[in-house]
Amino acid sequence: MNSIDLHCDTASRLLYENLKLRESICKVDIKKLKEGKALAQVFAHFIELDLVKNPYEEFIKMYNNFTKELKENEDSIELVRNLKELEEVNSLGKIGAFLSIEEGEVLEGKVERVQELYDMGIRFITLTWNFKNSIGYPNVGYKYKDKGLTERGKEIVLEMERVGIIPDCSHLSDGGFYDLVNICKKPFIATHSNAREITDHSRNLTDDMIVKLANKGGVMGLNFCGPFLGSEKVPTISSMIAHLKHIKNIGGVDVLALGTDFDGIENEVEIKNIAEIGKLRDSLIKEGFTNTEIDKIYYGNVKRVLKEWL
Predict the structure, then answer these.
(1) How confident is the model at residue 1 (pLDDT cuts 50, 70, 90)?
(2) Residue-range domain boundaries for the chain
(3) CATH (one of 3.90.930.12, 3.20.20.140, 3.20.20.190, 3.40.630.30) for 3-309
(4) I need a labelling partner for 24 at 20 to 30 A (CA). Which of 17, 56, 184, 268 fits?
(5) CB-hemisphere CA count at 13 Å for 123?
(6) Inter-axis angle of helices 237-251 and 278-286, nearest 10
């Protein structure tokens, strides 16, 4: 079972808990990625604004630590920056590591920094986390629901599109989402968000948002976080399938992807770590999804977006 996971917070755990990428207590490590037959993993540099003095400096610290880990394990995993590099790495039996940032304030409102981050290998930026920043507003509850991107935020998104960094609308306010619909010419994505119609949480996307994301050619990664999936203490595969079925019915199978949020979510999950990602496939087959549809969910749709962007 080949897979591409659009979001994990492993890079921050490696730094703050002094762990190793090859094998650790993390839900994502090289050993588990191999067991899960991963093609690629998107590793987020998660910066919690209220806990750091300087988000850019904190990102640099995390980036240096994580790229050092990649270098030490280049027999198994390599930094990739586009689809061509991913396919080359996969052909050698290795896993591709894409880099993302989860907190747009790493840019500190500086449009010129977008190019710098691109040159460092960053290919996705989650525009906000749970705090308002110079780009826009988060969906924390519905406090900022209708707030859009700032004028500087719009400039930054256009620059991201110019250089080749994919905007991620997970965590972004509804108003910010619709601004992306209006200004982005290429597909944008929701790396780790589910369906609000199934689970009424502000972090999930409404049916209208799902349709508009699909019409843009974007994808949304299924998030394994308990509150976004439902009310179960330990989220089950059946709750995941309920979201996938609904999203497929509303936006079509081409909008579906995986975005586990492993090492960022605190709850236990029926799929315990990235090594067990194939369990979802087995259940999807039982639920009537075709192999072609499942391949799209697991990696095909993300590859399509990568091909258009990178």
Answers:
(1) low
(2) 3-309
(3) 3.20.20.140
(4) 56
(5) 25
(6) 60
